[in-house]
Queue: 2 jobs
Job 1
Amino acid sequence: MAVQNIKPGVYCVGAIDWDRRLFDELIPLPDGTTYNAYIVQGSEKTALIDTVDPTKEQEFFNNLTALDIARIDYVITNHAEQDHSGVIPRVLERYPEAMVVTNEKCKTFTMEHLPVPGGRFKVVKDGDTLPLGNKTLSFIIAPWVHWPETMLTYLKEDRILFPCDLFGSHLASSDILSVDEGHVYRAAKRYYAEIMMPFRTMIKKHIATLQKYEIAMIAPSHGPIHDNPGFIINAYREWISDDVKNEVLLPYVSMHGSVHRMAGYFTEELMKRNIKVLPFNLTNTDIGELAMALVDAATIVIGSPTVLTGPHPAAVYAAYLTNALRPKTRFASIIGSYGWAGKMPETLQSMLGNLKVEVLDPVIARGDPKPNDFKKLQRLAEDILKKHQESKITT
Ligand code: FEO
């Protein structure tokens, strides 16, 4: 990414990673990502807000050279994860006067992850300010977005919020600003689902705190900058709300076709009742799409055959991921099959302990599903309809 001037004295000096297709060796990145870092030049001091992933170090330093940055006084570290902090040791080598400015917990985390000596830190607390001359930074301690040490930085004169991961998206784009809001919405929702959803209670508090700040621009550390902050804040308000949609998420796996037939039949029964269904055949599923579907669905039904007396490992993976992401889903059930014996439904249900769901009676067929099993699938679809209607979940 070439240097981008986003306001007088404020520059984006980060890097675009067009080719990255996996993050944390877990999360698919269909659109690549960016690591945004920002230079804020005041009349007296210069601050760098976050750095980049070490794989993009050279590009980042080329940007600092292009901008002719001879001195950095402060390296603001909003978050210790290495895709933002990883180049701090090299920045401190190149700019020996620079101090790392962060909160106490982030200082500890940074020192545990990177070779940064304790004497190079300036520790700040919630509400502290850092004058740069004609510009002023202030700090909002905002834990759990998505690590316990996270904080947000606010540039008062330009009304820019630098929230690091919060409000970000894994989206490589030549548009530095959020121009195509439809595309950014999907990328940001995917990012929220994969990274932020387990912390929605904390995010509610942080968004309430931000109400007292005038914000003209949100400059996250992944993806495009939001020059219409209301767009992304309102999207987050929708995702973190307690509202769910008249949707059933149906991740399933089938070995010899029994569960596949059950999933197909069940999908049609739900559709007949005007319930939106999102089936995911787990042998070929982008887990980011699955996570996104979890943001809104009122109900999840997991489909699995029985393998070695338990659930299929692909179904275990879906259940584990769902449980870890803690969606606001209200109802859950299980459909599937077994050959001779096993505890498939009990095992899957026990894996969803983080969810505050009412579990509806599973439908488990012995071998090939028979007419009576299809009747039970009708009954489950009817139960879901009733539960959604009783809870006034109609759209
Ligand atoms: Fe983009 Fe939590 O790092």
Note: The domain at 4-240 is CATH 3.60.15.10 (Metallo-beta-lactamase; Chain A).
Job 2
Amino acid sequence: MSLISPWRAAFPGILALEAEGQTYLDSAATAQKPQAVLDSLLGYLASGAANVHRAQHLPGERATRAFEGTRDKAAAWLNAASRDEIVFTRGSTEALNLLAYGLEHLLQPGDELVVSALEHHANLLPWQQLALRRGLKLVVLPLDVTGSIDQARSAELIGPRTRLLAVAQLSNVLGRWQPLRELLALARSLGALSVVDGAQGAVHGRHDMQALGCDFYVCSAHKLYGPDGVGLLYGRGEALAQLRHWQFGGEMVLDADYQDARFRPAPLGFEAGTPPVSGVIALGAALDWLAGLDQAAVAGHEAALHAKLLAGLGLRDGVRLLGAPQLALASFCVDGVHNADLAHLLTEQGIAVRAGHHCAMPLMKGLGLSGAIRVSLGLYNDGADLDRFFDALDQALELLR
Ligand code: PLP
């Protein structure tokens, strides 16, 4: 099957890399950007930059309108109940840190925070450090052999002391949708707060926050074909209202004296300082661009590419997949070959894949691995990208074995 992406030509970055002899297969780390996003970034910067929310002049009013326009688009994208449920952050990591600080006052020593064994450091370390600061217990949900959070064990581990559940929607290492519906229902039935790390999940399909039923959801624009330095924090209205302010300065203040101050509610109360104005505006362009695509065609292309990736890996002796990935990526190691050596030889052949612990060191340790190679796909990848990857893999393995 030829597997040609009809969207490839819209991505100048992927074409430039191709002209340089590079095959980009690292979209789970960051995605290339469509021309519409580049146009938006340049359009804003070239037509007169201005700060938002604080200037009454024309450029300021124009920037604020575009910036707040992205809030409307993000609320629609996620089907939030209100635009005020969308907070702009600098990425998923910052959004998760915001939550770990903003919810701290609700927790008492002995309370339990629940994460899973597959979390990215961004959704582990803020909770781990919160647990250490506050004398909480961090409970880790185990996985089954496929790389899904084990539901039966979770039902035993999530209990009356659970105050918060924080889990990934789609693993950045194992490529599996996690059983959110069941886990979130369990957390809700116990009155625990829930946080979903959607950094990978948000890229594949549109997710309806009201149907999902979590309290908080985070994602990063740069993985969603948008600019870097921008993230989204969705918070259900009542859950957002429980957050304490965590960063101070700028327009997040309602009234200030030398000795005291009062702060705005969400969203502006959690957007201290000058936000990434150009990035937020360009995220709006990314969402518009994505909304204009035939979602079924994108899903079909991604599924076909993924099937080709799994089939090719399955044909090679000694290649061991981590878990049973369902979409978007596959991580693997090769018996008797160090992942860093393999990564080096792939790099030399112009193949841009990721090697190492993928910001999930505890998961790697649990699997008894020092690292793995991850191939991840974007909607601009063609079957030919995978053909080049497999040729390079075969060459590398011939040298290494
Ligand atoms: N969570 C997951 C599952 C991720 O894959 C990543 C990034 O790789 C993050 C969180 C952190 O995202 P960012 O670096 O954009 O803050």
Note: Residues 91-93, 120, 122-123, 168, 172, 197, 199-200, 220, 359 surround pyridoxal-5'-phosphate (CB under 6 Å).
